[in-house]
DNA sequence: AACTTTTACAACCGCATCATT
DNA sequence: AAATGATGCGGTTGTAAAAGT
């Protein structure tokens, strides 16, 4: 079925509304109430499209609209609702009295979305972007004082950054270092031997600083450099699998396939993934760097402890807070699902 | 001070859905 | 049931103001 345009566009004014137009619209609606938008411009004497009038009223002129900065509570609500509903701005707006869907949408796109991205959070899924983590740093920090001959970057080589097995190994090594230093040293020796022997016999490794995200190139022929790189990747994959196999000899897998030391297996009951909240009291993410300059969590998550104070729902300082403070607080609101195998405490 | 770039947000557009005839 | 109208919604654009050079 064909649809006629909502209004005759010929001769109708567009663009920003003038104060005079606003007054005409307000006066008219005060007298007749909102609604019947198509007829409204003509009846009110406005050279505007009815749709434009409705938008101007609902998004700007309505007396119950709250203007000014979003409060911490509002921001928190938006983020939480968005994680549940997605871009259902009108539904989100319904939960925020005085705020319009348009305003929330704009605020999301210009503030919250960017902030989440800066903090390593995917604004669509609300999940931490672990692909931004530097696993090399993770492993280095876990090993801490490893022999200088063990090149962690080489070990990681071309592995995808978000490799659950590697995360498991990081956790395993961290746990071992804490629980069984003797065994930890034996591990290191094995790793070292394994790495040295395999690195000597295989093709050169990719540059440690190579951005793994750039590796996802499309290969179109079998003779291009990309293919060569891919072959190296396969070699590294076999190295890595061999490494994993060696590791597994003295480890076992938990119910979810995560690698844990056999001596500690009984301490890992089957349980759902931890819902990790970065609230100040519960996590102290800031201490991740304690005694460890390598670890790079700070680069992807701001520190909840740096927020001005714990949230006080009745506080009034909110509107005068800085963007940084909001950013800090914002990240503390987000819940991260951390793989069971990766114990954040191990990196503190 | 002048110019350029970035940011913030009001407004527009097209489509979907619901209501009415 | 089909056609049409009214309204709502979400993505996108335009532009003024602010920030940077």
TrEMBL record:
This is Myb_DNA-binding domain-containing protein. Residues 9-61, 62-112 form the Myb-like domain. Its main location: nucleus. It comes from Cephalotus follicularis. Keywords: DNA-binding, Nucleus, Repeat. It is found in: Nucleus. One of its GO terms (molecular function) is DNA binding. Residues 9-61, 62-116 form the HTH myb-type domain. One of its GO terms (cellular component) is nucleus.
């Amino acid at each position: 079925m064909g649809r006629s345009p909502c209004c005759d566009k010929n001769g109708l004014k567009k663009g920003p509304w003038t104060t005079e137009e606003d007054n005409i619209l307000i006066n008219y609606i005060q007298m007749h109430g909102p609604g019947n938008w198509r007829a409204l411009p003509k009846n009110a004497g406005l050279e505007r499209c009815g749709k434009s009038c409705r938008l101007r009223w609902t998004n700007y002129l309505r007396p119950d609209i709250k203007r000014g900065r979003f409060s911490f509570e509002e921001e928190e609500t938006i983020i939480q609702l968005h994680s549940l509903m997605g871009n259902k701005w009108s539904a989100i707006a319904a939960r925020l009295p005085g705020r319009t869907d348009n305003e929330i949408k704009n605020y999301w796109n210009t503030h919250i979305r960017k902030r989440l991205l800066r903090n390593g959070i995917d604004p669509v899924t609300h999940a931490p972007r672990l692909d931004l983590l530097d696993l090399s740093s993770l492993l280095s920090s876990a090993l801490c004082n490893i022999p200088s001959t063990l090149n962690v970057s080489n070990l990681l080589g071309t592995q995808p950054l978000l490799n659950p097995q590697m995360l498991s190994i990081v956790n395993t090594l961290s746990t071992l270092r804490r629980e069984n230093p003797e065994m930890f040293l034996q591990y290191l020796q094995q790793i070292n031997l394994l790495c040295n022997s395999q690195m000597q016999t295989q093709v050169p490794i990719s540059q440690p600083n190579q951005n793994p995200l750039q590796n996802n190139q499309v290969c179109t022929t079998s003779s291009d450099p990309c293919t060569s790189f891919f072959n190296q990747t396969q070699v590294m994959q076999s190295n890595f699998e061999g490494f994993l196999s060696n590791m597994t000899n003295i480890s076992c897998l938990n119910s979810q396939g995560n690698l844990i030391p056999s001596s500690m297996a009984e301490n890992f009951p089957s349980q759902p993934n931890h819902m990790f909240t970065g609230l100040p009291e519960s996590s102290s993410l800031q201490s991740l760097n304690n005694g460890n300059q390598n670890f790079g969590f700070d680069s992807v998550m701001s520190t909840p402890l740096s927020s001005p104070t714990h949230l006080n729902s009745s506080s009034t300082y909110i509107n005068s807070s800085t963007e940084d403070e909001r950013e800090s607080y914002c990240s503390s609101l987000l819940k991260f699902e951390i793989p069971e195998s990766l114990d954040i405490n191990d990196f503190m």
